Automatic annotation (TrEMBL):
Localization (cell): Membrane
Keyword Transmembrane helix among UniProt keywords: yes
Protein name: Taste receptor type 2
Gene3D superfamilies reported in the protein's UniProt record: Rhodopsin 7-helix transmembrane proteins
Segments forming a coiled coil: none
InterPro entries the record matches: TAS2R (IPR007960)
Alphabetical keyword list: G-protein coupled receptor, Membrane, Receptor, Sensory transduction, Taste, Transducer, Transmembrane, Transmembrane helix
Membrane topology note: Multi-pass membrane protein
Similarity annotation: Belongs to the G-protein coupled receptor T2R family.
């Protein structure tokens, strides 16, 4: 019980710490959309990641005030993890398609049709959310019909849903890993070319490349931690050690804070807006 209370307070603290970064990303992107009536795909992905991160933190804080722990709560926890995995993977793949040049028909086709891939992923997340939302009501209808059959259907439907989430999460983790590895290899090749041509001086293109590597590496670390926590949640739930799942949730949200920082620093629009705000604050403080 002590672990639950400590984790709940820790979740509240990390949520408060992460609020400025996530709200900053959301506000800047909304302002950009209102100004130009459009958002670049990379900004759409960053905006979605920040919204999911914020909702994830709010759900973590709200759901633990009920000290009971059931499979429905597990499904909510895993669903938001899957959403975070999806958006961070889409960001990594998007950066990879922009930076890494591979002359293969499948890679070129993915570059041209990435918007479609993004729309399909978003549709999958929406359908997954509907399944999670309808899960308890479907089970309740079964209770009115037959208690014994309901117990069986609850286990079967919950297990199937968890397996679907796990399969999608494995795919996203693999895609994120491959994209990050391709970007890192491309960076080393780019650095080698610069050293040969300009005797090691850094170009603006290389600086942007390094920022991108830091961003996708952080996203990959977040993905690995999230996927590990999902597997751990299955095991812990099976052995009735649900209190330790709170620790997994706390670690994930700490990585969300680092991800928000690198997303801001790795995006030109967000970084410029942050520098302007900091300059204005320094001017006010000097007065």
């Amino acid at each position: 019980m002590a672990i639950i209370y400590i984790s709940t307070y820790s979740n509240i603290v990390t949520l408060i710490i992460s609020l400025p970064g996530n709200l900053f990303i959301i506000f800047v992107n909304i302002q950009e959309f209102c100004k130009n009536r459009r958002l670049l795909l990379s900004n759409q992905l960053i905006f979605g990641f920040s919204v999911i991160s914020l909702l994830h933190g709010l759900v973590d804080v709200c759901q633990w005030d009920n000290h009971g722990y059931d499979k429905y709560v597990t499904q909510i926890f895993i669903y938001f993890n899957m959403c975070t995995l999806s958006f961070s993977t889409l960001l990594s793949v998007h950066f990879c398609l922009k930076i890494v040049h591979i002359n293969h028909w499948l890679y070129i086709a993915l570059q041209k049709r990435f918007h479609t891939f993004f729309a399909l992923t978003l549709t999958t997340l929406v359908l997954g959310g509907i399944l999670v939302y309808l899960s308890p009501s479907l089970n309740f209808r079964g209770d009115l019909l037959n208690i014994t059959s309901t117990d069986v259907s609850k286990r079967e439907s919950s297990t199937l849903l968890l397996w679907i989430f796990t399969a999608i999460s494995i795919l996203h983790t693999l895609l994120c890993s491959v994209s990050t590895l391709a970007i890192v290899i491309s960076l080393f090749k780019h650095m080698k070319q610069i050293q040969e041509n300009t005797e090691g001086s850094r170009s603006p293109n290389l600086e942007a490349h390094i920022h991108t590597v830091k961003t996708v590496t952080t996203l990959l670390a977040t993905n690995i931690l999230i996927f590990s926590s999902m597997i751990s949640s299955y095991v812990l739930f099976a052995v009735r050690e649900s209190s330790w799942i709170h620790i997994c949730s706390l670690l994930i949200y700490i990585f969300h804070i680092f991800s928000s920082y690198f997303l801001i620093r790795g995006n030109k629009k967000l970084d410029t807006a942050l520098v302007e705000i900091l300059n204005q604050c320094s001017c006010f403080s000097s007065k």
